[in-house]
Structure formats: C-alpha cells, structure tokens
Amino acid sequence: MNTSLAAIVLAAGKGTRLKSGLIKVLHPAAGLPMISWPVAAARGAGADPIVLVVGHQATAVQSIFHGADDIRTAMQEEQLGTGHAVACALDALAGFRGTVLILCGDTPLLRPETLNALVAFHLNNRATLTVLTAVMDDPYGYGRVVRDETGQVKRIVEQKDADPHEQEIREINSGIYCLESDFLFGTIRTIGNDNAQGEYYLTDLVAIAVQQGLTCQAMATDDADEIMGVNDRAQLADAARILRRRINREHMLAGVSLIDPECTYIDHDVTIAADTVIHPGSQIGSGTVIGRQCQIDQNVSISDCIIGDGCHIKAGSVLEDSELGDNVSVGPMAHLRPGSVLHNYVKIGNFVETKKIVMGEGSKASHLTYLGDAEIGRNVNIGCGTITCNYDGVKKHRTVIGDGVFIGSDVQLVAPVTVGRDALVAAGTTVTIDVPPDSLALSRVPQVNKVGWCLKKKA
To answer: What CATH number does residue 304 fall under?
Structure first.
C-alpha cells in the first residue's frame, strides 16, 4: 500500500446511451451504484483522498458517500473531455504530493489488486506516467497504445484520430492512469483540444511526457473484463453478470452451496454462513445476513434481512427488512414485510403476510393469514384466514396476543385489542374487545336452518 496515494474518479457525464433519466454512474450493479465499485477499488489500493469529479446529478452522486472522510468532490460544470475533468479536480488535491490514480466511474469490474499492481509497477519502473492497458481481439472504439522500440509508450491515439496502421494495434487504453502529482499539476492545463472531438484528452499527457523526456510505461492487465466501461444497458447487464459470478464464487469457496450459480443473484455485501443451500432463481439483496445450514428454495427474494441458523425459506417467498431467529420456516409463497421479527421455531406458512410484528418462539400461522402491527407471544396458533384489522382509515393500531393463545379460523382481530394468555378465540369470531386470559371468545350470528327451502325455490 502506498502511503502517498490519491485517486481521481471521473463521474460527471450523463451517459446518454443508457437512455435514462438517471446518470450512468448511479445505475446499480450487483446492489451498488456503479460509481461505488471504482471508489471501493481505490480505497482497497490505499488511496486517500479520493476526489470525485461530478457534474450531472452531482447531489445524488455526493449523497452516496455522505460523511466519508476520504471523499472530496470537484464540479465539472461543462463536460469538455477527460483532460478538462481532471483539471477540475486540482483544487481538491491542493497540497497533495505523491502518486495519483485516475479512474473512470463507469468501470465497476476494476479490482483493488489490479490497482495495487499498477502502482507497484509504476513505482518500480520510476515512471512519471503509467497507463493500464489490455490486449483485445476487437479493439474497435478504444484508444490505441503506441509504443516505441524499447516498449515505452509514445502516445495514445483515439479511435477517431487513428490512422489505418494505428487502428491495427490491439493494445488499448483503459482510461486508468497512475502518475506523479508534480507532473500532473504542472501539465494538465496545457492540454489542447485540436482533435476530431474538439475535447481536452487526458491521453495527451503521454505525448507531453515523451516530449519532456520523461518515462511513460504501460501495464497490461490479464483480465480485459476489468477495464470494461459501461455505456449502455447491455454492457451494464454484462458487468453485473461478471460481478455476480465473482460474488457467487466467493460464497461457494466459503462453504455455501449454490445449486445453479448462473441463476442465483446475490448482491455485494451479503453474508452467508457455511452449509447453507440456495436454489436457482433466488435473489438475495444487500444487507442480508444468513446463518448456517439454511435452505433457500427456488425463486425466493430476500432483502436487508437477518436470518438465523437452520431456517427454511420455501419457494416463492418474499422477505423484506425482517429478522428471523433459528429454525424458522417461511412459505411457500409467504410475504414478510418490513419490521417482521420471528423468534426461534416460528412457522409462517403459504400465503401468509406479516408486517411490523413480533412473533414469539414456537408460534405458527400456517396459511392464508394477514398479521400486521401485532405482538404475538410464544406457542400461539393462528388459524387459517385470520386478519389483524390494524387500520381504521386514519391510524394504525396494534394487536397483542398472549402466550399459548389459540386463534381459530376466519377470525378478525379489530385493533386495538388484546387477547390474554391461554385464551381461545373460536372460528369465525370478530374480536372487538379485549379477551381475558384463559377465556373463550365467541361471536357468531346464530345459525338458522330453513328446512325444505331449496325445494320450494326450485318449484
């Protein structure tokens, strides 16, 4: 790790090819805004400070890193090219002396290990400027790296400015640079815009360094995917697929079984303990923690949840911002909405929906039930078709159910209401007043049988 390392991340552009109202670097990839990935790579390489050059939707970009001590921002009001963008960052780096990384905000596949290798290569070769490159079978669209007979970089020429011979070169510029601050500060504002695009190209720094007799190097990465820029939604999907493949591989190497990794979608900061099995079609979102020996069935969606050991999440269930203890069973086709807390050995069955509830150990609601804004004790049985009527049209109200309560089928609990411990609520009851402990609550319209009525109707 270099103790005098800073980074500039270029993130001012709009990204028109995505055809979106959201700028390019804010589009998510594997659970993070795209800009977060190169920033994480810079941090992993030890860069501090990190300057974000922002422009379009600057406030939204800045909000992602709100409160981060290592992040500074610089505004590029008018996008006039990469050289102009870097020049906009100089004030934010005032007083810094050392090595500077220049990264692109639309390269989510870049790894910290690659940046560490780039910095080490740069320093070991005592270079003034080093560019990260890759050799591609089809280099169309990329700037070409032109070397001299000794292997040093002479210049970088953009696709539109390259002559036929230069267009045959397969080594391409990644747009990622490592250079010394004194050279950067002294030359960046001397770049001109006499080119096909009329822009200030950062690549012109190479020619300037060569003219000054300084050392320009290039380090080729073994993995061309790392430097892939995202310009449209197809490339965004490609990048996200590679990120998920990396994430899934890390989980599998740590002892998690993914039945079909290509059809399992796990975001970047998910924690999963060993011996858990995840079936295809499952989507596990950021902030989720899953314990040991769990089973996640097919087509399950989990986001921002804490799940204990030995849990079984059955097919088609959706879990959001909820907390499960150990040995909890959910589903199939259940929906845990935010604020659901299920203690050990709770069972939530098929087509059960919960929201802002606490359910005590051993309690169960096996099917076709809605439980919202409720506190449910231990060893409670909730019968089929039960509803906590928690909303009066203006405010939400809570239902409290004590330990050991049995709720029969098709019960409506009109909140606010309390059912005392070990009480029994008969099937078909509408509970509108508190039920004392150890009591039977029963409210039904008396049944009337009109004998022969159907025969008279047919006649």
So the answer is: 2.160.10.10
